[in-house]
Amino acid sequence: MFVRKSKKSLSEYSTGELVMFRFRKNKLAMFGVVLLSIIVITILLAPLISSYDAVVEMNMADRFQSPNAKYLFGTDEFGRDLFARILYGGRISMFASLAVIGIAFVIGAIMGGAAGYLGGRVDTILMRAVDVLMAVPSVLLAMAIITALGNGVWKLIIALAVSQVARFARTVRASVLTLRNVEYVEAARCFGASSLKIILKHILPNGIGPIIVSATITLGQTILSISSMGYLGLGVASPTPEWGTIISENKMNIGTYPYLGLIPGICICLAVMAVNFIGDGLRDAFDPKTKN
Amino acid sequence: MSEERKNGARESDNLLEISDLHVQYNTDDAVVHALNGLSLKVKKGAKLGLVGETGAGKTTLALSVLRLLPAGVGEITEGSIIYDGDDLLKQPESFMLGLRGERISMIFQDPMTSLNPTHTVGDQILEVLDLHFHEMPREEKNRKVDDILTLVGIPPARKNEFPHQFSGGMKQRIVIAMALVAEPELLLADEPTTALDVTIQAQILELMRDLKEKYNSAVILITHDLGVVAQFCDSVAVVYGGRVVEYGTVEQIYAREKNHPYTAGLFNCIPDLSVKAERLTPIEGRMADPRVVAQGCCFAERCKHCTEICKSRAPSAYEEDGHGILCHLFTKKEGA
Questions:
Q1: What is the ipTM of this complex?
Q2: Which residues 6+ apart lie within 8 Å of A244 measured at CB?
Q3: What span, in angstroms and rounded, lies between the C-alpha atoms of A260 and A246?
Q4: pLDDT of the residue at A15
C-alpha cells in the first residue's frame, strides 16, 4: 500500500522533472555543475580579465617568473603570461571538445537512427562500419587521421569526432530499437507520419536520456584527448595556446619550474572531473531504479 | 474511373471492399497464415462490429487496410482492398501517407501506451492536422483542437498538459480526439474499450456514437465483446481462422435463429444472469494452428455438427437477406 502511495505522488511529475529533481539531490553532481560553471564563465570572460596580446607577447626580461601578483600563474621560458595562456587555451580546449561531441552526436544519431529504424540490410552495413571504428583505439584512430590531414584545430576536431561516432551510433541505435515498436510510434504511423517525422518527434525525445549521459561522459574524455593530442604535438600548434599544448611546450623546463606543468595539468583535471561528475549524476538521475 | 464505379450504383456505396484477402507472416520458423480469403464490405457511414477470438486475424485486417503490416514479416499474398474506388494494394506509399490519419484513422487498444509521453496532448492532436492540412492557418488548427477536445469532454484549457496527467478514460478520449480531428471517412477502432473498466467503457461507446453521428464516418469496431457490438454496431462480421464465417445485421445475428456453429458457441459463452449455472459453456478445443491451412472448414475440429464433408471441403457461403453463413450445415439444406 505504501509503495503504491509514494508512486502515485511521484507520477504527478513528468519524467524530465523527476530527472532534474534527482539530479539536484546529487551533491557530487551539483559540485560538478558549480565547478564547470566557474571554469566556463572565467573562460568566457577572458577578454575582460586579460588581453590576447599577453598570450603571445614575449617578454624576455620576465622569463620563468614563479606565480606572483603580476603574473598569477607565472611565466614560461619566453616570458609569456601563463594565466592568459591558460584562459585563452581553455577556450580552445572547451570549444573543441563541444564541437567534437556535437559533430559525433549528429553523425552518430543519423547512423544509429537509420540502422535502428530501418533495420535489415541498412542496419547490418552501418553497424559493421561502426564495428570497424570500434576495433581501433580512439586515440590511435585520431592520430592516424591527423597524420593524414595535418595539424589544426578543425582537423583535430574532425579526427576526434570520427573516433567517437561509433559510441553515439550504438547508443542511439539501442534507443531506437526499443522505441521502434512502441504503441505511440505505431499510432503516429497510422496517422500518416513519415519515418523521418517519427524518428525526430516520437523516438528521439523519448530515447534522449541515455544519449545525453553518454555525451557528457564522452565530453570529459574528449577534453582529455584534445590535451593528449596537444601534448603529443598532434593537436593545436604552438604558439596558439591549448592546455595540452602548454604542457608540451614547457616539458623541457617542468623539472626546474614544476608550476609550468602543474597548473595546466590541474586545469585539465578539474574540467574533466567536473564534466564526469555531471555525467555520473545524469546517469543516476535517468536510472528509473533510483526512483525514491 | 475504377472498376468499382462501373459495376453500378448499388455497389458504389461501399466505402471499403475487401475481397479474398490472404495475409501471412513469414517468421523464422514457420509461415503463419493470418488471413485466409477474408472478404468484407463496409458501406459509407456504417457501424460494423468485427468479432472473433484472439488470433482470429482482426488486428491483422486493420493493419492490412492501412498497409502497416510489420515490414519484412507480414505479407499480403492474395486479394484486393478497394477503398473508395482505389485498390490500396496497388497505391504508392505517398498515397498511403495521405490516407492514414486523414481518410482512415485508427484507435488503439491501450490508451496508456498510445500517447507519446514527451509531448503535450494538444501538440499530439495538432500533429495530425499538421501532417495533413498544410494550408490551414495556425489559428484554425488551434481552434479545431479546442473544438475536438470539448467534443470528447476534455476542457481545452488542459491541452498543454502531458499524457501522464490524465486518467485512463481521459487518455482514451484524447486518442479518440486524435483519430477524429481530421474527420476521417473510416475509423478503425481496435478494441477501444478493452483496457477500460465497464463504466468508462459505456461512456466511450456513447462518445463514439455521438461523434460518428456528427461526422458520419464509417466505423469498424474490432472487439471480442459481443455486448459492446450489440450496443454500438448495426452490422456484425464474425471472424474465425482468418475468414469471415458469418455476417449480417445485429438483428439477424443476435436473433440466434440461424447462426454459424462458432457464433452460436460465442453466444453460449456469455454468462446468463437469470440462470444459476455452475460452469460456463466454452467452445471446446483451441483455435486451429494458423501455420496449417485447413483443407475443409477451419472450424471443423471444434464443431459439434462436424460431418465428413466439413473436413474435406471448404464451405461456400449461404446467404439470406444479406445474412451470410459460411457453413456446410446451411448450404446442404439449401441444396436439398
A1: 0.72
A2: A93, A226, A227, A228, A229, A230, A231, A235, A236, A264, A268
A3: 8
A4: 66
> Rounded to an integer, what distance in angstroms lies between the CA atom of residue B93 and that of residue B68?
10
What nine digits make up the cell of A119?
533495420
Cβ within 8 Å, pair A14-B162: yes
Give the pLDDT of residue B182. Answer: 87
Q: Report yes or no: A265 and A278 within 8 Å, Cβ to Cβ.
A: no
Give the one of A15, A119, A190 whose C-beta lies nearest to B106's C-beta. A190
> pLDDT tens digits, residue range B167-191?
888 888 899 889 888 888 899 988 8
- Reported as type and span, the H/E element at residue A200 is none
E-only strand ranges, A88-190? none
Q: Are B78 and B20 in contact (CB under 8 A)?
A: yes
Q: In this complex, do A202 and B99 lie within 8 Å of one another by their Cβ atoms?
A: no
d(CA B46, CA B218): 5
First to last CA, chain B: 42
Which distant-in-sequence residues (6+ apart) come within 8 Å of B293 by Cβ?
Answer: B33, B36
Cβ of B127 and A188 within 8 Å? yes
| β pairing state of B186-190 and B243-249 | unpaired
Residue with grid cell 592516424, as numbered in its chain: A144
Nearest residue, CB atoms, B164 vs list A14, A189, A201: A14
Residue with the bigger pLDDT between B123 and B286: it is B123
Domain over A98-235 is classified CATH 3.40.30.10? no
Q: Kindly list the domain boundaries of chain A, sorted by start residue.
A: 16-45+250-292, 98-235
CA atoms within 13 A on the CB side of A15: 17
pTM: 0.71
Distance CA A65, CA A256 (A): 12
